[in-house]
Design a protein that fits this description.
Structural class: alpha/beta
Shape: globular
Number of helices: 13
Order of helices and strands: EEHEHHEHHEHEHEHEHHHHH
Strand content: 15-25%
Low-confidence stretches: none
Helix content: 40-55%
Distance between the termini: 31 Å
CATH class: Alpha Beta
Strand order of the largest sheet: 4-3-8-7-5-6
CATH superfamily: AF0625-like
Number of domains: 1
Radius of gyration: 17 Å
Number of strands: 8
CATH topology: Rossmann fold
Oligomer: single chain
């Protein structure tokens, strides 16, 4: 595999890849039987990593970190190393589901959501094998049992929708127990696939206004969205201090 080109965003290393390159790397992991952690990285995660050095270490140790939000793409331009595009995790997974004979295990979301998400994916990707599902409301004591279930299922692609930082920490801890699996943290994707949540229309996504759409539909997200102006200020500071 070629040397990784990475961009430092507030101390977190983001791979300089577009969607095609990300797909090539992940399918390479799947083909070679390489256990791997994929992080779909956003501005809120970068801000969280500012105050949690352990989380920052998890991100930086991942096998692939893709720019999941427009905030990261904007940061890359400010920092003088512009990324070609946003690599949306939910779209990345949809394309991976068409990879040669993938078997997928879904972990996360509320009871029943993972199963509904799996059924939705299966309906759109007929060659997809669902190796198993598990809701995300499990205790630390149950995590070992879930890891063993994933390994026994021989799933090659594990989608973990526990929200950050929990999903990244969980993958980092249990990846060695899962067999040759590629694990991707997918946040709220299960709710979208299961029909319980909706993405912004494509036109708004092209205009980089998905965040506004989600805020209008979920006003309780306002507290989280306040991290975005702080993120912008920190990126500008990084630009000025590393000039």
């Amino acid at each position: 595999m070629s040397e990784r080109r990475r961009l430092d965003v507030l101390g977190c290393a983001v791979d300089c890849v577009d969607t095609r390159e990300a797909l090539e790397r992940i399918t390479g992991f799947l083909r070679d039987g390489h256990a791997a952690q994929i992080v779909t990285f956003g501005a809120e995660m970068a801000m969280y990593a500012q105050r949690d050095s352990g989380y920052r270490e998890v991100v930086n140790a991942a096998d692939l970190v893709v720019p999941d939000t427009v905030g990261i793409v904007w940061a890359s331009r400010v920092l003088g190393r512009p990324l070609r595009e946003r690599v949306a995790g939910i779209e990345l997974v949809e394309q991976l589901c068409d990879a040669p004979a993938p078997s997928v295990f879904l972990i996360g979301a509320a009871d029943g959501v993972a199963a509904d998400a799996a059924a939705s994916l299966r309906s759109r990707h007929p060659a997809l094998t669902i190796a198993g599902t598990r809701h995300g409301y499990f205790s630390d004591a149950e995590a070992s049992e879930i890891a063993d279930a994933v390994r026994s299922s021989e799933a090659r692609l594990v989608l973990v929708a526990l929200g950050f930082p929990r999903q990244e920490y969980w993958i980092r801890e249990w990846l060695p127990r899962l067999g040759p699996a590629v694990c991707i943290g997918v946040g709220g994707a299960f709710d979208v696939w299961a029909g319980r949540a909706h993405r912004a229309p494509a036109a708004l996504r092209r205009l980089a206004l998905e965040w506004a759409y989600r805020l209008i539909r979920e006003p309780r997200r306002l507290g989280r969205q306040l991290a975005l102006p702080a993120f912008a200020l920190r990126v500008l500071h990084q630009r000025l201090t590393t000039r």
